[in-house]
Design goal:
By secondary structure, this protein is of the alpha/beta class. It has ten helices and ten strands. Helix 4 (about 100-110) packs across helix 9. The radius of gyration is 19 Å and the shape is globular.
């Protein structure tokens, strides 16, 4: 399997690109599941020229039956990306607060929208500042983009196809083991996992600094879960953010066909007829909740 070389960029490489005659558009997508919104961090200091884009309200649709971070409306996303300066055929770099999750979801969303020229800043904003590179509090570039959003650039799972992957392929649940087993559920109203899904917690393939290990390391870890050539692969989490990072990791491992269940667990549990499994074993389909 080949490993793409266009997924990540380090701070030094990004600084050089920004100083070139054709700099990339940089999107600041810092985000927290709980706590102050990322825009607060952006206003306190950001990469020079970076534009803030909100994951909750601009890169996702309104929460509801589709989950907590469903796919955005294509027309609305197009307006957001054009306002941020994203142009057809020109590179984009996305970064977050360092854990890599929001940046990976932004990377995935742009590629789903048909824009392939996007990379993640490895290590995010902390890596940039640790390298001694400049930070700005000034306004971003006022350039208007021209991107036309064309959905379908990345494979997507809904509840039905996620169940099919769990039954006949490898559906990776990247939540913490205790959430997978159903012992605790701090966010959603129902605990457990999709029957047949295998648990590969994000901490198994992402460093504490949010960086992804080498492709060979990732390939070996996902192979333990059954990922191999010719097998259908998908990933889910609570709401499709951490799982987007799993898709990025799978791409780095040489598995570019990995699909994202965007609605993830927060969508799965909206239908009480969908079965829920408990315990450490992927298990057979359990009785539906009534």
């Amino acid at each position: 399997m080949s490993v793409p070389d266009d997924l990540l960029v380090d701070p030094t490489g990004l600084a050089a690109a920004l100083a070139s005659a054709e700099p990339p558009t940089v999107l600041d997508v810092r985000w927290r599941l709980v706590g102050p919104p990322g825009r607060t961090d952006y206003l306190a200091g950001h990469l020079p020229g970076a534009v803030f884009v909100d994951l909750d309200t601009e890169l996702s649709g309104p929460p509801g039956e589709g989950g907590r971070h469903p796919l955005p409306d294509p027309a609305a996303l197009q307006r957001v990306l054009r306002a941020a300066g994203v142009r057809t055929g020109e590179p984009v770099v996305v970064y977050d607060g360092g854990d890599g999750m929001a940046a990976a979801r932004a990377w995935w969303t742009l590629r789903w929208a048909g824009h392939a020229e996007v990379r993640v800043l490895d290590g995010g904003f902390p890596a940039w500042t640790a390298a001694g590179l400049p930070v700005s509090t000034g306004p971003p570039s006022s350039r208007t983009g021209d991107l036309t959003v064309r959905p379908g650039g990345m494979p997507v799972l809904d509840a039905g196809s996620a169940a099919e992957v769990a039954a006949g392929g490898v559906l990776v649940d990247v939540r913490a083991a205790a959430r997978y087993r159903g012992e605790t559920e701090p966010v959603d109203p129902v605990a457990g996992h999709i029957p047949g899904a295998v648990n590969v917690p994000a901490t198994d393939y992402v460093g504490t600094d949010g960086r992804l290990p080498a492709a060979e390391t990732l390939r070996a870890r996902f192979a333990e879960a059954g990922v191999r050539p010719g097998v259908r692969v998908g990933a889910y989490c609570g709401s499709g953010v951490t799982a987007a990072q799993a898709v990025l990791a799978l791409h780095r491992a040489g598995c570019p066909g990995a699909a994202l269940y965007v609605g993830s667990w927060s969508n799965w549990i909206t239908d009480p007829d969908r079965p829920v499994a408990l315990g450490a074993d992927p298990g057979d389909p359990a009785p539906a909740r009534r």
